[in-house]
Each structure stands twice: as C-alpha cells, then as structure tokens.
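Contributing new complexes? Match this layout with magnesium ion.
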Amino acid sequence: MSVTVIVGAQWGDEGKGKIVDFCAKDADVVVRYAGGANAGHTLVNDGAKHVFHLLPSGALHPKARIFLAHGTVIDMDVLLREITLLETTTQFQRSRLLISDRAHVVLPHHKVVDEVRDQGTDAIGTTRRGIGPAYEDKIARRGVRVRDTLNPEHLRTLLVRNISAWEPLLRSAGRALPDIEDLLALCLEQGAELRPHIGDTSRALFEAVSGGQRILLEGAQGTLLDIDCGTYPYVTSSSTTAGGACTGTGLGPTFIERVIGITKAYTTRVGAGPFPTELFGMEGESLRESGDEYGATTGRARRCGWLDLPALRYAIQVNGITDLALTKLDVLSGLKEIPICVSYELEGERIAHLPCESLDSVKPIYEVLPGWDEDITHCRALEQLPSQARDYIAFIQERVGCEFASISVGPDRAQSIVLKGAFR
Ligand code: GDP
Ligand code: IMO
Ligand code: MG
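Output block (do not edit by hand):
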C-alpha cells in the first residue's frame, strides 16, 4: 500500500504543483481530490512553464494516470481548454485521464453568482471561478454532476431546478438568466467530448491500491483555506486538508501512508482574512518582487509575510503531516536577517498555538535568524547550502517537530534538494 497525500500547509500557492510534478515520476496515479479551477499550480520543467488549474500536476510525466476525483468541482470549459493546450504543446494524451462521474460541474452562472456576491467590505476576494456556488449546490443536493451531462432528459430537469434556485439573486443583481436550451446544449456537448474519460475514480483507485500501485493525492489551496479548519469565513468552500483526500477520493484514512505538507520559507495569502505575519510597505513589496508573488489564476498581487510557526504546527496537527517540503528558500537569499514567528501574544499572554477564532487579534512574536548572501539556486545537496540556510532549516524542524523531505531552491523541477522520496 503506497498512498501519499500532498497538502498546502499555509494559505495556498506553497508550490504544490512543483512538488507534485517532482514526485509524480515515481507515481502510477496522480489524483486531484478537492477544489476546482480556483487552483493555479505552476510547473517548470527545463525552463518550460505550465500552469494547471484542474489537471493534476502529474500530467507532464508520460506514464502516470491522472484522475479528477469526486471531491473536485469541474468547469468543463476550463478542463477541455487545458487538455487541448497540453496536447498541442506536450506529448500529453487524454487517454491517461479519468474524471469522476460523481464530481460536480461548475456551471457558467456559478461564476456570475460568485462575482455578483463577493463585493463590498465583507468580500472574501474569491477567484471568481464559481467554486462557492458550485459547492453550495452540491451540499443543497441540487447540483449537476459530470454523469448527468451524459443524460439529456435528466440534465434538463436538473438545470431547470438549478437555475430556478439562483433566479432571485441573478434577477436582483440585474443579470440575465441562463438560457436553458443554450446551457443544455453546452453541457451535453462538453459531456460528449469527455465521455470516454468519465468513470468511477473511486473504484479505479481502490483497484490501483490493491494492485500495489503508488498513488499521489494532490491537494489544492491550503490548510488555512479549508472550509472547516481554515480562517472561516475567509476560506474556500472545500476540504483542502488531508481528511478531504479521503472524502474527496473515496479512499479510507488507513490507506494513507504519508502526508507531505508544503510550506514556503515565508508566507503568502491572496484575498481577504487574517494574516498575523503580513508585511506592509517596502518590506512586503520587496518579498513580493523577490518571490514573484503574483497569482497564477487571477494575477493578483499576493500578500507577503514571514514564516509563521504556530500556523505551521497547526497544519501539521490537522493534516497529520508526516514530512514537510520547504519551497522558495532561494527567495530569502540576500536578506541580512530573517525574522520567524515562533509564538503569538494574545490579550497580554504568550501562546504557542494558532487560535482560529482570534487570529486577527494576535501579535506575532519573532526570533531573528541571520541571513545569507549566496545564490543557492544551484544547490542540490544540504551541504552545498550556506550554514545560515542550513540553520534556518534546522530551526524550523526543531520548533515544529517535523522533518523536511525536500528543500526547493528554484521553480524548476531540477532545483530541488531531495532528502526522502515521496513513497516508502
Ligand atoms: P501552488 O498553487 O501551491 O502549486 O503554487 P503556485 O504555482 O501557485 O505558486 C508557486 C510559485 O512559486 C510558482 O510560480 C512556482 O513556479 C514557484 N516556485 C515553486 N518552488 C519554488 C522555489 O523553490 N523557488 C522559487 N523561486 N520559485 C518556486
Ligand atoms: P492553489 O491551489 C491561493 C483563495 C481566494 C480567496 C479564497 C476563496 O493555487 O494554492 P474561492 O475562489 O476558492 O472561493 O476563493 O480562497 N484561494 C486561493 N488562494 N491559492 C489557491 O489555490 C486558492 N484558491 C482559492 O483568493 O481568498
Ligand atoms: Mg497556486
């Protein structure tokens, strides 16, 4: 049995795409288990950059099968465009893809609702990809699933019901209602194109595990964006944590052997919500420029700050992280000193844990480590790193009680220091 989950340990954009792509060379199946086209996973291979929103980040490897499991919500238009782009620019063949027939479909009006609602001072700053409304429909049991796009009569009934649920909101916002015939035709056309790749991913996964295959379950977003464990309401609408890998794929928890949590060497966040170690002004700007911190999905500038160890310990706890992967260590090169948040002050008391409901009231307490000047992007072994960088790594490991399986020193697949493989 060899199932490894890869999760974001922060607020997303930790470099999951790079690490999944790197680990996928040893995998037989790579599976996306949650979220939708709100994700932007960037892979750089020999200088060539690919951004995946829906396809699992194992797609560049010629052998691994790639699954979109039932925990995802699928914008079929984005998926078809992503498949076509990959087929025209790489050796990718869609025959390796299996899409869950039970995954829910993101309909065009979900994106309109997302945009219309997420306005004003309470705005979450969503990606506008229709994720919230699609999951709302799923939970309200009025969603359209991938399998429904293969059955015209049933699909018509579901679409009529679905549109009527959103009608009051769309009307009050002065937005046009979707034309049922157009929407029906679009969904049927997309369903027909994807038909050969639609099936039962849960059963296929169970068979793969039973046959001794190696499975990589790829998380999207990050721990603190999880609908239950995150900084609610400033979260996404899915279970992004390792528990979501079970519900989102249908593989029970005892199948999972390892959980790799990805953390940047600092922290970023896109959209609104608490962020204790956030840097403002020149300091934040400088980290953003060094790390090229602009969203892969929306192009928005990411908020930047120092590494937050209480938040990382929380991620280790709620995901059951067995190994960490550090990314973007190279971005810190050139800093004289690197502050690292080791605990918080809350109402005059020093606390070491992350208080979910009062995160916007905490004051970070920092320890300051010496920085290094050297460019480390060519380093391929720990010993090649400057001693201050090794000390930074050791400090984190010691303070969170979990070891790194890899250290990433650049965006390219090759720019990695691997200490432990993805599978046992
Ligand atoms: P994801 O959503 O977690 O897959 O992360 P994103 O792809 O949205 O953002 C991570 C960004 O950092 C991407 O542009 C990656 O190419 C880049 N990246 C990943 N690892 C490293 C690294 O170690 N160093 C540098 N400089 N960039 C990295
Ligand atoms: P990857 O997989 C960073 C954030 C949005 C917003 C909140 C809700 O690339 O790490 P949503 O559109 O999901 O309803 O938005 O979640 N968000 C992400 N932030 N990386 C992501 O994905 C994100 N996906 C959603 O900015 O704050
Ligand atoms: Mg991203």
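Reviewers usually confirm one structural detail per submission. For this one: The chain has eleven helices and 19 strands.
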